[in-house]
Design a protein that fits this description.
This protein is 31% helix and 23% strand. It has 341 residues and is α/β, with parallel strands linked by helices. The strands form two sheets. An eight-stranded mixed β-sheet has the order 6-7-8-3-9-10-12-11, with helices on both faces. Strands 2-1-4-5 form a four-stranded antiparallel β-sheet.
């Protein structure tokens, strides 16, 4: 297991907020904000994979992009490899880019259709290095070998490849500058099931060989269980639970985590028929108008009165386990609130 001391973390995110302003009316007045990411904190130890899971629209992808400063964040701090990039200028940020890269969700949309494979993989080398033509070509071939692409395909275009091959091109591009940290934004979501395992195995193999650190964003809980060392569960812009993979899957604490895991298909017919399902009622509230108190209070099967009034703190309740729920906070213990039926 990893030593989760903060001073060992390659990535340190504290109270990250990413709010998008809403302008309405003829005069385009600022009338509110979409709170896509609303006070997220986590650390990632060098060499580990942190899985970030949650249903569609909870802010996972926005969080991943904000961590790499692809957006100008609203507030919070992001420290990557010892440098605080949250307030870094664009010039300084550009010099920091080789350390941190991203693998995007849709390989077809993230690759320039007018560029060859060699051009796509070599573009970061053109921007950030001063390699000679022969050195650049050698590096492109080396990267193609690493991700399992035939060198003969170097002068082909993205539309000539399958989805899995296109994602390998995207991974090769992300590896071009020898990064330490890679955000994988649902890298298998757009792929056939038969190809998903190949891409995940490739990511694991590259991590082992190159010592990479991943933030792996996905809504596929089964795949996250396979690749992640620790898992953070996100709901409506906030992390509600963070724990080691084994602890989270064997003993979830937060009601939302329990509901998510109960929805994972069970391949064993006997266990499938006896498994308890947590059925959530209602819809996810709008991130532009979240409920007062706990974000999950409108759908929680174990909701209490305090949940509608006080936003729970994200606290360490057991060694290596953090959760934002009044059922595990001191605030709850000092109240006589009873679950709402």
């Amino acid at each position: 297991m990893f030593d989760l001391r903060t001073d060992m973390a390659l990535v340190k995110v504290h109270d990250l907020k990413m709010h998008f302003p809403i302008y309405t009316g003829v005069l385009r007045r600022h009338t509110g904000d979409v709170k896509a990411v609303d006070g997220v904190s986590f650390d990632i130890i060098e060499g580990e994979t942190l899985g970030l899971v949650g249903e569609s629209g909870c802010g996972k992808s926005t969080c991943g992009r904000a961590v790499l400063r692809l957006y100008d964040i609203t507030s919070g701090s992001i420290v990557i490899d010892g440098d605080d990039i949250s307030t870094m200028s664009q010039d300084d940020l550009r010099r920091k880019r080789p350390t941190m890269q991203m693998v995007f969700q849709d390989p077809q949309a993230s690759l320039n259709p007018r560029m060859t494979v060699a051009g796509i993989i070599g573009e970061p080398l053109d921007e950030h290095t001063k390699l000679t033509k022969s050195e650049r070509e050698a590096r492109i071939y080396e990267l193609m070998d690493q991700v399992g692409l035939n060198r003969d395909f170097a002068n082909r275009y993205p539309h000539e490849f399958s989805g899995g091959q296109r994602q390998r091109i995207g991974i090769a591009r992300a590896l071009a500058l020898n990064p330490k940290f890679i955000v994988c934004d649902e890298p298998i979501a757009a792929l056939d099931v038969s190809i998903q395992a190949q891409v995940v195995n490739l990511l694991e193999d590259l991590q082992e060989r190159l010592g990479l650190t991943y933030l792996f964003i996905s809504h596929d809980l089964s795949m996250v269980r396979h690749i992640a060392d620790r898992v953070a569960v996100m709901y409506l812009g906030k992390i509600v639970e963070l724990a080691s993979r084994d602890d989270l899957y064997s003993d979830p604490l937060h009601p939302y985590t329990k509901a998510l895991l109960s929805a994972v298909p069970e391949p064993d017919p006997t266990l499938h028929d006896t498994a308890e399902r947590v059925i959530l009622t209602g819809d996810v509230p709008s991130p532009s108008n979240p409920p007062k108190g706990c974000n999950f209070c409108t759908r929680c099967p174990a909701v209490m009165d305090i949940c509608h009034r006080v936003d729970p703190e994200f606290l360490t309740v057991r060694p290596g386990r953090q959760v934002a729920c009044h059922h595990y906070s001191e605030t709850k213990n000092t109240n006589v609130d009873q679950p709402v039926t």
